[in-house]
């Protein structure tokens, strides 16, 4: 399956979809119809994609994952405070929707990921970075703040103190520093998309219900605290107890064969 939209490409095969931000001439900056196209990719194409098990988000070319907002486009936009406040709700809905998408999301950060680009990467469950990647939330340098979720998502990944340092100084950090502070889980010297694809294919072999419930359980605890996390964990474990996939997994283990999961 392949579909090209105005600013991105959606491709999927064998249970893995790759969503490519496709504005390489603008370093894949967020502009034009990109937000609408991302919503279409995640909320229509991916939901209709039978057999989908994992999604990879990356950028076209090898210079940029996403350089953030298209500043040239944004500079010409005039909005009052109340107008911005109301319009930004749609952006936050997109970010939340990507974070809560039913299947795991891997960000293959193949270059610069700054501002809104890093905020897109922060929606992912797993982040891999190319060795030459640069990451950061430099909005304060322009008299703004990270407004697409970054003030909330980054502290939940690296802790409040480190998140504040990165935002207050507008630092462009290296991939190695991002690895050291836990922002990414792997730095790849050569083919970051290939590394992400390898992990995505391993995930695609797992029982999809168990993966989906594990993702939701982690998110519930991170967003709602330990008690809420325990409650959801108990609920999720109960929902999986009598699933076809759980029974198949146990049978395959006993019979020493590869399981066949159907997502029920």
UniProtKB/TrEMBL annotation:
The UniProt entry, under Pfam families, shows: ECH_1
As one GO molecular function, the record gives:
hydro-lyase activity
The entry's protein name is Enoyl-CoA hydratase
Query: Is Lyase among this UniProt entry's keywords?
Result: yes
Q: What is the lineage of its organism?
A: Bacteria, Pseudomonadati, Pseudomonadota, Alphaproteobacteria, Acetobacterales
Arranged from A to Z, the UniProt key words for this protein are:
Lyase
- Domain of life, source organism: Bacteria
Q: Spell out the InterPro entries in the cross-references.
A: ClpP/crotonase-like_dom_sf, Enoyl-CoA_hyd/isom_CS, Enoyl-CoA_hydra/iso, Enoyl-CoA_hydra_C
Q: Which BP terms does GO give this entry? A: fatty acid beta-oxidation
The Swiss-Prot or TrEMBL record describes its family as follows: Belongs to the enoyl-CoA hydratase/isomerase family.
